[in-house]
Write the structure tokens for this entry.
Amino acid sequence: MDTTTILQLNETARAQGLAHQRKRFAFKKILDETGRHQIGLVGPRGSGKTVILKQLLAHYPDSACYLTLDAVDSPGLFQTIQNLHEKYKFTLFLVDEIHHEKQYARELKKVYDFLDVRVIFSSSVALSLHETAYDLSRRVNLVFINPFSFREYLYFTKELDLSALSVNQLLEQQWDALHLRQEIHFENFLKGGLFPFALEEPNILPLLGNILDKIITSDIPLIGRLLTDEIPILHRMMRFIGFAPPDGINYSSLSNNLKITKYKAEQYVRLLEQAFVLKCVMPAGTNVMKEPKILMRLPYRLLFQPYEHAIGAIREEFFAEMMICKGISFNYLKSTRGAKTPDYLVHVDTETYVIEIGGPGKGREQFKGFAGKKNLILAHSNETTGIKRPLFLIGF
């Protein structure tokens, strides 16, 4: 183990952490986590997990050590941490992209059981804490680091600290005029502004393409044990989903169009969802086929279609992204043939909301049969009459 390289990288990372003064909304939540348990920062590539680790390094200058496992030869995570703890007295280890450690679950368990240190790690794939021989569920708390919500985007780009809005506050029109004025920034957000790296790279699509390629060729083979000849199928699957309207994408359509088994379609979709590229939304109700509606995570669709052509799907994917950011459960409503129904059921505490997503001209004809429910149309406009509300407000 080259400790000189580790210490040099540690100092570089600390300086980079100090250079990023503005903190993500999740930063305080991480600081407030106390106790012996380890913390996993899990979220998409490009969502800012590495910056958060470096900011934590700057916050704990005397006790923390930053480790990026792909930059140094390591005898294993446990051995590396043990050596650094015994020799340099570090007590907090910030480990970047831990899924590159093949036996990460075993190594984290050994650290927890035998060393008096804490570990905060990041991963760009959703790690299962239960589905291993080393059940980590008692030892690790996961904190999901999503891309910016629209509210957090405005905090970073316009230095606006606006209040959050609940779904019910939208229904009751309980917002400030300053919220409504932010519609002018909505398009930039939809075109990729939700990723923190867009703060320094205005043209994000080349970078986003590189991220997707790395996910498919590096991250997914690590967690999915795929054969080399399966990787091109993932590229074809993303291209097919990227060009198709969301309503037509499910396991069956992927199986038919890609000439793969339905089992393989499910496996690939699950892996892409674990890598935060796709989002599966299950249908509402019990008497329906349980195939999910498959959405892309924002803004990956723009790698395949221009914004103007993709805007209908992007509106839905923005809505889904904001539900994920808020931690709100939602399902899609399946329509019977020829019938119009709203898009989604949203579940907040004991309340259920029926929500339709659409463009400026979206009407309320989809709500027949949903009388007496809490109905909302989230339209791509600034209209606030009746049950219509501006779509961008769901991002607060």
Summary: The CA atoms of residues 44 and 124 lie 5 Å apart.
